[in-house]
What we know:
Largest sheet: 8 strands, mixed
Strand content: 35-45%
Oligomer: single chain
Amino acid sequence: MCGRFTLRNLDDLKARYGETDFRPSYNVAPSQKILALTDKFQTMEWGFSPYWAEKPFNLINARLETLFEKPSFTNSNRCLIPADGWYEWKQEDEVKTPYFHHLDGDIFFFGGVFGGYRGKVGCAIVTTDAVESLKNIHERMPLIISRQHFQDWLSGDNIDCSDIFSSKAIINHPVSTHVNNPFNDDPKCVFPAS
C-alpha cells in the first residue's frame, strides 16, 4: 500500500522535464491534487473512480497483480507519478510506526492509472509485493518504474517488474507520528525519529 508520499526537490524534475506548476510537499495525502506524467505533466486528484460508478470509489492504490482483471481499471489509462519518498506504517502490537522510504533524495516515478469520473480526473498508485528488505515494515510497496521503461508503461505494455529498479537503493528510517496528520507538510515529517 502507499498512502502518503513526498515530492520535495523539484529542481531535478524541472531540469529534465521543464517547468511544472506544482509546489514541493513533505506529506502528499489522498484526495490532494498531485503531479502526473502522461504525454505531458498535469495535475490529477489522488483517488480513482471508474467512470461507471454510481458513487465515487476514491481508490488510492491498484494492485499490479489484479490490475488487468478488476472491472474498476478496465478502461483506465496509465500515468507516471513523480516522488522522492513514501511512507509506510509498521504495525507492532497496538503501535503503528511510520517509516520514510527514499532513494537518497533522487526523484523516481510510481506507476499509476487514471481516468475521468463526472468531469474530474483521478488516479491511483499501482502497488506490488514489497522487496525482501522492506517486508518487515509492510508487505506492499509502490511500483517504481525505471526510466528505460517509461514509454512501455505509458503505452500499456506489460513490463518485467523484476527489472524496475534496484531494491538495494531504497533507504528507510522511522519518523515521528507528526506525518500522521495530513495537514503537517514540513521537513519534520521526514526527520528520523529520535
